[in-house]
Amino acid sequence: MEKLPLIGLTLEGLRMVAADCGMPAFAAKQMAQWLYEKRVTTIDEMTNLSLKSRQRLSQQYTIGREVPIAEARSIDGTVKYLFKGVGMHDIESVYIPDKERATLCVSSQAGCKMNCYFCMTGKQGFHGNLSAQGIINQVLSIPESTKLTNIVFMGMGEPMDNLQPVLDAIEILTSPWGLAWSPKRITVSSIGKIKELRTLLDVTKVHIAISVHSPFPSERVKLMPVERAYPIVDVINLLKNYDFAHQRRLSVEYIVWRGLNDDTRHADALVRLLRGTNARVNLIRFHSIPDVELKTTSESAIVAFREHLNSQGVTATIRASRGEDIMAACGMLVGAKNNSDE
User: Which of 92, 105, 239, 285 gets the most CB atoms within 10 Å of its CB?
Assistant: First the structure.
């Protein structure tokens, strides 16, 4: 019988485990402390559980920690980790150190259903959802785990297409019995699946990042087919119902392509789209991928775009590119070992 993993379980899930193994109810909090605060790798290390309880637990369960299969290190300090994913399809996460910040970009799916034109992950198709164990394992099992200051759900997959495991992972990250992080340390990126995004907004306080890339629906649909199902106007209208002026932050992800979406007309339309949202715009340089003819804009054009947005009252910044030399930058994750992983 295959043993079930304990990491990725919420406190309620651990209560069910305790009941299943004939353990007292308070053992759930004890297990949570061992799993998420003390970060044990074996059940035998849970020394305040009785020997009988540990034996029963070990018959059906395992901790569920899995170390990375491979890693690739960038000249800029970024590290890309390859993890066991779903079936035969592995996943990647990216560790990004930056002065006092240490961010982990986690994946929520193997592959992706969204098929965005500019994204290597989307071009490989969808292979399966990660469990909460698969998500939390990325956080707990990289060598830099205890150094992390921020988590971004911006790796492989669309988080809103795998909502419950993502919510369970956020609960583990933010609960007092879990890692006890502030939700301000977590950002979830989405293309804007409206029903699921509303649920995320209502039940968590994490930051939100929305992929826009063009303010014009007729252009956005060519880049992001999901525009047909989830028009960006409807997504932004939903976001206008939430407070992003205080603790929670809303950011807009906008990849800037030469001659496509980098002019004043697009900047003005983006300002109109975001009016009333308190959104900040992250301008992202495009990283070339195979079989995509799009080109990143010039440095002068992206700076001019930023300055135009700022002059219209929309805070905009240019995101520093990290890890391009190891295929770890935005849109480049594929969940496969490459030559620099040796």
Answer: 92
Q: Which are the contacts of 272, defined by CB distance < 8 A and separation ≥ 6?
A: 215
Counting residues of the chain whose pLDDT is more than 90, the rounded percentage is 89
- SS3 string, 184-228, reads HHEEEEECCCHHHHHHHHHHCCCEEEEECCCCCHHHHHHHCHHHC
* pLDDT on residue 181: 98
d(CA 213, CA 257): 9
Helix 264-274 with 232-239: angle, nearest 10 deg: 40
Q: What is the pTM of this model?
A: 0.95
Dmax (CA) of the chain: 69
Phi, psi of 172, rounded to the nearest 5 degrees: -65, -40
Spatial CB neighbours of 237, under 8 Å, sequence gap ≥ 6 = none
Asked whether residue 252 carries a pLDDT value surpassing 90, the answer given is: yes
Confidence grade of residue 107 (pLDDT, cut at 50, 70, 90):
very high
Closest alpha carbon to 73 in 323, 332, 336, 337: 323
| Res. 340 pLDDT band, cuts 50 70 90 | very low
d(CA 5, CA 169) in angstroms, rounded, equals 14
Cα–Cα distances in Å, from 32 out to 29, 174, 254, 255? Answer: 5, 13, 39, 40
- Other C-beta atoms closer than 10 Å to the C-beta of 295 total 12
